[in-house]
Write a structure and sequence with these properties.
This protein has 467 residues and is mainly α. It contains 19 helices and 6 strands. It has a 4-stranded antiparallel β-sheet, with helices on both faces. A two-stranded antiparallel ribbon has the order 5-6. The longest helix is centred in the middle third of the chain and has 64 residues.
């Protein structure tokens, strides 16, 4: 079965047209389509489209999993078709009939949407939206630092005039570029956080700059000198969110003729003082707690902590709570230079690959084999969504086996306290970001593959679920 982007786009549009498509976006593996009336959408019919690897019925979207690269082809084929469609008329007879037949389904879906749209999950989603635009920079900078790390370890100082590679002009440039994301992280977070919470981005960026100014050393807060950059991204998040809410409030009460002059001035003054005397100390406390807590958990929890964290990560992804880990990774990288959590959590995806390979080895279901064949390569590269939603989660038992395999790999990685210099990638490519043991990380990957594979064979599965 060959991949046909135009055919997939046509069939997807055929299934979603009557539901009134309001927005289309893509991520690494998914088409994210918002519709006005989800009650008119048949999830089962979407799943049966050849080339679709799985469906996530999110609270505010229909997410169609197609795979890296391929999803962009489908998007490019879909948008011209969508542009030619007249806006769906909800007052038409056909729509009225369909809407009448789907009242109960719509009611159920709306209840589920309200149930999932908890304030905590919505907050985590906003946090994720702040950091997701930075992931390409984390990947690029992390890989550059990884290259520097590999060159330093594989060469001798004599090759560079008696100094290590990072001390040469070329090495210094590499290192500066690789450190760019951490150097500017506070500003990026301030800009994105302010925008995400409804404020003016540049005001959030200015307040982030204030928290990192050297002049803070001259200010005494509660009897101690303020420390530039203390609290890292946590402090910046706090002040940017405060500023956004304050700005929105002030715009409601300040006359429009004075808004341009008065609002930004008051936002900067009030938020700036609050940041220096209240939010930065709080952010510093929280940052220290997160950093020290993660280090202690890995250092003293050892293999048990590694197993639990990795085994629990896939269920965490199912609930959406994994989004809250992104700022933690960023904070760890900014304060310690590496994130010790990412190499552990990456093992969950490797367990997924092992489980999928076991299903491929044992099943006679041709559709299942095709899904695995289409998804396994990106699975090795750390993109696990096609395998999760197309294979292991629908079969369920392999999903449990994947958690076990991931736990085994996580236990091994945690035992050696491996750290990654960047985020945004996983699987085999993450080895390039490992600062202190690339080969050990790859051994962990192999153990997770083997664990997921063997656990799936032992637990078994019913492949008749996927038709």
């Amino acid at each position: 079965m060959s991949f046909n982007a135009e055919k997939i786009a046509t069939e997807v549009l055929g299934q979603l047209a009557q539901a009134d498509i309001t927005a289309v976006a893509t991520c690494m593996t998914r088409l994210r389509i918002s519709v006005a009336d989800k009650g008119l959408v048949s999830i089962d019919a979407l799943k049966k489209i050849e080339g679709v690897l799985g469906i996530v019925d999110a609270s505010d979207q229909i997410q169609i999993i197609i795979g890296p690269g391929k999803v962009n082809q489908v998007y490019d084929a879909l948008m011209p078709l969508l542009a030619k469609m007249p806006k769906f008329d909800k007052n038409s007879a056909n729509t009225a009939k369909s809407a009448t037949n789907s009242v109960d389904a719509l009611s159920i879906k709306e209840k589920l949407k309200q149930k999932n749209a908890t304030p905590f999950k919505l907050f985590l989603k906003k946090l994720a939206n702040i950091f997701i635009p930075m992931i390409p920079a984390f990947i690029g900078c992390g890989l550059i630092l990884g290259i520097v790390n590999i060159i330093i370890k594989s060469t001798s100082p004599e090759m560079f005039g008696g100094v290590t590679f990072d001390k040469t002009t070329l090495g210094a440039i590499f290192k500066m570029i690789g450190s760019g994301i951490t150097f500017g992280l506070a500003l990026f977070v301030g800009l994105n956080a302010s925008k995400e919470f409804g404020g003016t981005p540049i005001l959030g960026g200015v307040l982030a700059a204030v928290l990192n100014m050297p002049e803070l050393n001259n200010i005494t807060v509660f009897g101690e000198h303020a420390i530039p950059g203390r609290g890292g991204v946590i402090a910046v998040l706090l002040v940017a969110i405060l500023a956004a809410y304050l700005e929105r409030y002030l715009r409601k009460i300040i006359p429009s003729s004075l808004d341009l002059f008065v609002t930004p001035t008051l936002v900067l003054l009030i938020s700036g003082f609050a940041a220096i005397f209240v939010l930065q100390p709080i952010g510093g406390f929280l940052s220290d707690a997160i950093t020290n807590g993660c280090k202690l958990a890995v250092e003293h929890g050892g293999i048990l902590t590694g197993f639990i964290l990795s085994a629990a990560f896939l269920p965490l992804v199912m609930t959406g709570l994994h989004q809250g880990l992104i700022p933690i990774h960023a904070e760890l990288i900014q304060t310690t230079g590496v994130t010790v959590l990412l190499p552990i959590l990456a093992m969950a995806g490797a367990g997924q690959v092992g489980a999928a390979l076991a299903v491929w080895f044992k099943t006679d279901n041709e559709k299942l084999k095709h899904i695995i064949k289409s998804s396994i390569v990106v699975g090795f590269l750390g993109v696990g969504e096609p395998l999760i939603y197309g294979v292991t989660l629908p079969l369920f038992k392999p999903f449990l086996a994947a958690c076990i395999g991931g736990g085994i790999g996580g236990a091994f990685v945690a035992a050696f306290k491996l750290g990654a210099t960047g985020i945004g990638i996983s699987g085999i490519p993450l080895a390039l970001l490992i600062q202190n043991g690339i080969m050990l990380y790859l051994v962990g990957i192999l153990l997770a593959y083997a664990g997921g594979f063997i656990a799936t064979l032992l637990i078994g599965f019913d492949d008749s679920i996927i038709e």
